[in-house]
Specification:
The chain is α/β, with parallel strands linked by helices. The chain has 16 helices and 21 strands. The strands form 4 sheets. Strands 3, 4, 5, 6, 8, 9, 11, 12, 13, 14, 15, 20 and 21 form a 13-stranded mixed sheet that branches. Strands 17-18-16-19 form a 4-stranded parallel sheet, sandwiched between helices. Strands 1-2 form a two-stranded antiparallel ribbon. It is elongated and about 80 Å long. The protein binds adenosine-5'-triphosphate, 6-O-phosphono-beta-D-fructofuranose and magnesium ion. It catalyses: beta-D-fructose 6-phosphate + ATP = beta-D-fructose 1,6-bisphosphate + ADP + H(+).
Length: 540
Amino acid sequence: MESLPNPPVPQKIGADSNGSAANSNRLFDLRSSLSSVKLPVRNGAEVKLRLGKKMGSEARLCPKIEYGDGGYVLEDVPHLTDYLPDLPTYPNPLQDNTAYSVVKQYFVNLDDTVAQKIVVHKNSPRETHFRRAGPRQKVYFESDEVHACIVTCGGLCPGLNTVIREIVCGLSDMYGVTKILGIEGGYRGFYARNTISLTTKSVNDIHKRGGTILGTSRGGHDTIKIVDSIQDRGINQVYIIGGDGTQKGASAIFEEIQRRGLKVAIAGIPKTIDNDIAVIDKSFGFDTAVEEAQRAINAAHVEADSVENGIGVVKLMGRYSGFIAMYATLASRDVDCCLIPESPFYLEGKGGLLEFIEKRLKENGHMVIVVAEGAGQDLLVKSMQSMDHEDASGNKLLLDVGLWLSQKIKDHFSSNKKKMSINLKYIDPTYMIRAVPSNASDNVYCTLLAHSAIHGAMAGYTGFTIGPVNGRHAYIPFCRVTETCKKVVITDRMWARLLSSTNQPSFLSHEHIEDANKEDEPSTESLPNDHDVRISDGSI
Ligand SMILES: Nc1ncnc2c1ncn2[C@@H]1O[C@H](COP(=O)(O)OP(=O)(O)OP(=O)(O)O)[C@@H](O)[C@H]1O
Ligand SMILES: O=P(O)(O)OC[C@H]1O[C@](O)(CO)[C@@H](O)[C@@H]1O
Ligand SMILES: [Mg+2]
């Protein structure tokens, strides 16, 4: 084993209250200015810990990095044995399970990893990989030892109940676990609310309902109180379902659990209707939301088409990312213009939105506009008094772009200069779209997420988020899904497809395009460092 590096050395976090190094020397609180720290050799490969991007004033624990041949990089997730090296293992009970034992190679090979980038050139380095999700031959928990809990945090999303159901049923059916607690009302439920016992019977039908049977909340993340509660209740597997904020909270819980040297696996299941979680292909509930949005767009189209100069405006969710609006528009084919946060637009003058509306009305007699809630916020702030309010989790509260835009359009066409009579209907289905139960494909997806999370926790992995990367489920370090937010890349082909389907102006000047291209570079060339990985919209 290599010795630890000399100063500047990151502060060790494995020390217990007496200052002794209770934990392994592999894990550090990365508050140093080093970009990476060489660590002891593991599986014959050099292991490195690297600094995450700063989030506020906090530095986050970063992945264990392993390097292999041909530029291969594994961004590994923590394992309980990183700080509890002598944990015993047990044979995976799945090998005696009649349903699974027939599957050839059911267990995942320990060395299997999933490539983050699959479009490569002949001489491209292999680059970033994540540990493949799935059941392992050896587990680190005996079935009757497991005491699991599930919590849901942040906004609602179709499929929450399905994930809860499948964690309960998966733990029970696959691993014979019976002690499963539901934490009510989000993070604060750990210390301020009741818990409910979850059984396969009590969750049997819940996937048919929208929302979350556990309740949810924003704010109220008190790491110490939460970990005290986990410790006091003897919980040893924590399944945390939520968006970017929730995963940051899960990361803080993981760090504290590790600091206390507890045998507790922390598994994150990414949730966000906005589909803005980095690295993973898609978040659950997104397909359902896009499907549900069709009903609102259809209504807007019917209304607009039935009157002279009819305009239907539909506002959809998407705080920082316009995925719902983009996919709902592409799916519908009735939309004339889609406005998203990533693509700035302007109203007045040549090439502006109002000019386009007039043109489209003259051509077709009606039009439909889909606007994501985070679009045009810069314009709103200029023309309205900015409120600068935040929700309990610290997310900025947005001004209502749908109402604002509708009013601007009405004002424009009723002005003395224009005097064109229009008939505008504004539809705001935002909460209807996320309060519905998940559709069939999301249900299957939720099941896979739940199973992957369970297999990971049983196998002793911790501090991970689960999700599909290029179609294969992988264990992803928390910092990789929290350091950046996935956005629509407006210079990618998917946005070009949208522009060509709606025939709307791009509202982009030549300089905008140049800037966007610069930001997105390089696309398929080798990436300069792991934090600059370009977040794509899955274009083909
Ligand atoms: N940086 C952070 N550290 C610890 N906890 C956090 C952090 N950010 C958010 N949280 C906690 O995570 C929970 C959910 O956060 P938030 O309300 O931002 O929703 P989210 O998980 O991002 O989901 P979504 O935005 O998709 O609705 C809250 O209880 C909040 O206190
Ligand atoms: O009204 P709430 O519950 O705070 O949620 C609204 C936000 O939640 C999201 O749906 C993300 O979960 C955003 O699109 C939206 O801005
Ligand atoms: Mg969020």
